[in-house]
Records
---
Amino acid sequence: MSGAREQFGSRIGFILAAAGSAVGIGNLVGFPVGAAKNGGGAFLLMYAIFVVAICLPVMLAEMSVGRHAKKDPLGAYRVISGNSTGWKLAGWLSVITPFMIAVFYLVITVWIFGYLYEIVTGDLAVLAEPETFGNFIKSERIFIYMAGVLAVVYLILQGGVKDGIEKAAKVLMPTLFAMLVALVIFVLTQDNAMKGVEFYLIPDFDKINAGVINGALSQAFFSLSLGMGIMITYGSYIDNRSDVPGSAKLVALTDTAVAFIAGLMILPAIFSFDPNTDPSQLSESSIGMIFSFLPQIFLALQDSFGYTGASIVAAVFFLQVFFAAITSLVSIFEVPVAALMDEKDMGRKKALFILGLMMVVLAVLSALSFGYNAFLSSFVSYAGQSKSFFDVIYDVFYDTILPLNGFLICIFVIYKWKKVNFNKALDEGAENYKGSFFEKYVDFSVGTFIPVILLAVFINTVALKYF
Ligand code: PHE
């Protein structure tokens, strides 16, 4: 498509859209559960250090590459590298990875949407039964909910950058935040809530080991939407006068604040449900937490607030997670859309249609891999474990390739694009960045220990997961 490149309408619009991408299911549930299991305040501290010391510099690398090239990730790698075949491969990875992650993120969002719908229609009590989730993910209703979620994503994306993505973020993000604060205030007024706060915040350094450190880093990396080409793509929609380091800091801060505040909602809720729980012994994964444990907690509220009251609280929770998931899904879907538009000169509607169809096929296959279809349920097996189609996508793209993409972008900006150009690009629109301590830190870290750490995480995952 020729004509001027689409752009965000304002700086705050860009920040909200990028924060909308970053704030997702990972913040609202993944982080609190991870923190509760792994040392509370100690985990929080480590997470915050990783966000500032490792993730923020990678975010700057991604945003500056996008803004400088004014292209999708594939085009950005191609143009800046002067058409090098090897770097084009890195570009491909940054487009395929988000597309595949979108598949599993879509499936989870569909479940959330389904739960929301069923709560609103009066079925909270059913959802709180232990076997419901297992049956729910195998039911045909999933496909109707999937159509609903895809329609929402489609409607937002067909509006384009300013009238679609930015507008949605401007409505959904403040609403999400208001719901989160309301829920925090509500749970904090429940009996025993303070025990949860205590548990959440008091550091337990004994819990910290290599696995926990690795988990905190992966969580931070995923939470900031790095390694998925998203920040490259969103960066390509801002002009050269905007302050990239300043915006990136605000995005990271918002993301971390939401994760932190979500802990003040989840942990007190667990303790008011059962003051004797030991969250460090929780066997629930984040998924089990959202779809089995929390519905039980919400249902228990009926003793004091009646069934309708309990359903309202549950509905607000699921609506909030749904909003967070939608702005993330939109951002990740925009990456391949931008790639088709830029690389194939295609219009937005056509690109959306083609990718939408491909997405439907893969998402249906993933949804069918939960016991529905024997072949898809045990698709392959590695390291002695049989894996479903859904598991494979998760393992390969989320767990393995993300840190590799992070490693590649670091090497790319410092050794291919070169430090001077990287700095010149970041200085534009950010006079106070030039010569600052932060600039020196970013330069040094992106060229040295950050890629080393990300490569180590990648190699370690490959060694542990597949052999
Ligand atoms: N940052 C999101 C989260 O924490 C993750 C995500 C973003 C996933 C974009 C997909 C797309 O949940």
Note: The first helix runs from residue 11 to 22.
---
Amino acid sequence: MTGNTKQTNKEVLLSIENKNVVSSYFGAMTFDQKAMRARLPKEVFTALQDTIRAGREITEEIAGVVAHGMKEWAMDNGATHYTHWFQPMTGSTAEKHDAFLSIDRDGTPIERFSGEQLIQGEPDASSFPSGGMRTTFEARGYTAWDPSSPAFLMKGGNCVTLCIPTVFISYNGEALDAKTPLLRSMNAVSKASLRLLETLGTKGVSRVKTFAGVEQEYFLIDKKFYSERPDLIMCGRTLLGAMPPKGQQLEDHYFGAIPDRVLEFMQEVEHELYLLGIPAKTRHNEVAPHQFEIAPLFEEANVATDHNLLIMEVMRKIAEKKGFALLLLEKPFAGINGSGKHNNWSIGTDTGVNLLDPGDTPEKNIQFLVFLVAVLKGVYKRADVLRMSISSIGNDHRLGANEAPPAVVTVFLGDLLERVLDAIESGKIDLKTEKQVLNLGLSQVPVVNKDYTDRNRTSPFAFTGNKFEFRAVGSSQAVSVPNMVLNTLMAEAVDDMADTIEAKIKAGKDRDSAILETLREEITATKAIRYPGDNYSDALQQAAKERGLPNLKNTPEALRVLESKDVQSVFVKYGVLSVEEIESRLNIRLERYVKGVDIEARTLQLMLKTLVIPDVSEYQGDIGSSFNNLLSASDEIGLSKAALKSQAGHYRTLAENLSLLIDLTSELDEVVEKLETLDGEFAKADYCADTILPFMLKVREVADRLELMVDRSRWQLPTYSEMLFEH
Ligand code: ADP
Ligand code: MG
């Protein structure tokens, strides 16, 4: 058995003859169920599966055998090193490679990988942000294997490395990563939902799972342009650049034919992803020129999060190889559509029932309505936390830019569900009568909603038939945080609903009346979060004000939410984050924001001083000498005063704008210098948002104006037109 599989694996990896038969090599680079079954003794395989299912800790005995099987599998596929792959609080991933090689006591070289090495690692934690958490405790951090996400092989150059997905925790067990809180939140929502299901009378469920399907948008531009733009290299977005005459007004890119060169990139990316067991499903052009999307099928939230991080990593690698630069930041080009990451989220039972899918029996429909209303309740109560979860420099430029959902979180349900909820609220529907529940037409919801939601792309949080689509997430962000928040707010809402229903039953109501009454109350209480209209409109801004919905305009405002005792208490109550863990995350995100803006401002200074001002000065020199020549020849050639004046005017406009730019550039120096003199991270962050970023825009306006006046051959920076329209 083993020998046979070895050969198959190797064959698959070394020469995949037919890339079209994806199912024949899907997951070949992962230590998945198939590989485990082949590599592990039957008892160990079964024991491992049981442990994973129950979420228990792996015993050292099992770990030893698993480690051996994993190492053999990895080595047969060319691996020489292993790494604990984890997600520090920077939003990306980290790894430190160790060789399998060790030297025996008698000097014999041998490859070893012990159970202990599999389950626990000790990377140098001091190089990762802790938000101040470990200074008071131990400086050490540990990585621990997350067996629910399969180990995989990563190729880079000629190296193959065994990557073991892990969590990253401190000596005292505090989460130093983004994954641990996500896993905790998945447990919290499961526990609360099991209780609610029991209250509803649903039997036979032992775990409720959270699912995520993550649609990833990105830009691809030619590497030669990228390498000449310090702003793209340093900040991931352009800080300067005049709008091209043809923007995306024509929207002819969307769903248009994918250029061959990009298609080749996509195919290679998908091939790598399939090997890694990532079910890439959809690829298409996006709204802006050079903007595209990739979406895999949905998976359990922790695996989907890992996979989204891997997708970004694989895309970056292949882009490099193909002579492209991959732009993942939310708003790489001002005035051009930005990139987001639609996070499709749902919860379902281990018996295969999607709790957000309207069923075809009255009981299932009631269950659906209860969970749907719980989502409304959770999002309404914690809209500010949800907003906080997706705040970043890049996303601040995108949210509310009339192309992406605004900073106000509302929920879109679609016409049919709106009517159903209204009917329940007004008492027109009595859920107790079987016939009426069926008459609600809930079974049509998925079909109807698909059409509707396609028409309302402006909603940040839209119901799309059997899942919610959180559309405000930024394209560069890891989805661990938004999903962690969604799960936590859901756990709280579900618990509250169960409390209310149970209290009513205790007070003598029969179960159906208790449920119906609770639904009615909650539909009324959460009405303010439902917004069927256009979220890009002024009406939404007005409605937000009237309804008292939070409207947190930028990252510092959004991050303040984490200081609220009430917000902290919900994370603590559900065991997702301790107060200390919350504070550490707040510190890290504030610091990253301030550093990020500082880097942007300094990059802009550099570009103005070393590229833009010198280029314009040179051109001004050209114009100056041409004007002087003209002046001295004007009598001779009989040039009218008026004609001479026009050219003088042109010269003057150029000179005036250049002088203005020079003045603003030195003012920018002062504005940036002041940042360091401020006390406190919030003061600094506010200063970045309120002063530095607006000032950068003011300078940019002049520079962009000049770009349109200067001879192209004098302008060193690649232009928007070149980056976006040349292939
Ligand atoms: P749309 O085009 O309407 O946004 P798609 O059917 O293309 O929807 O799905 C988008 C993403 O949502 C995909 O990743 C898909 O796998 C995922 N998805 C579908 N059903 C669910 C679900 N029940 N829970 C979470 N994600 C889902
Ligand atoms: Mg979508």
Note: Residues 215, 342, 469 surround magnesium ion (ligand 2) (CB under 6 Å).
